[in-house]
Amino acid sequence: MPQLSLSSLGLGPVAVSPWLLLLLIGVSWLLARVLAWTYTFYDNCRRLRCFPQPPKRNWFLGHLGLVTPTEQGMRVLTQLVATYPQGFKVWMGPIIPVIRFCHPNLIRSVINASATIAPKDKLFYSFLEPWLGDGLLLSAGDKWSRHRRMLTPAFHFNILKPYMKIFNDSVNIMHAKWQPLASGGSARLDMFEHISLMTLDSLQKCVFSFDSHCQEKPSEYIAAILELSALVAKRHQQFFLYIDFLYYLTHDGQRFRRACRLVHDFTDAVIQERRRTLPSQGVDDFLQAKAKSKTLDFIDVLLLSKDEDGKKLSDEDIRAEADTFMFEGHDTTASGLSWVLYHLAKHPEYQERCRQEVKELLKDREPKEIEWDDLAQLPFLTMCIKESLRLHPPVPAISRCCTQDIVLPDGRVIPKGVICHISVLGTHHNPAVWPDPESSEEGLLCTQGLLSALGTMCCWWVGPWHIVMHIFLSICIKPMLLAPGGHCTGCPLPAAEPSVLSAAGRVPHVQREGAVAEISLPLFPVDFHLFDHCLLMTEACLWDGGCCMGRSAL
Question: What DSSP character marks residue 56?
Answer without folding.
Answer: P
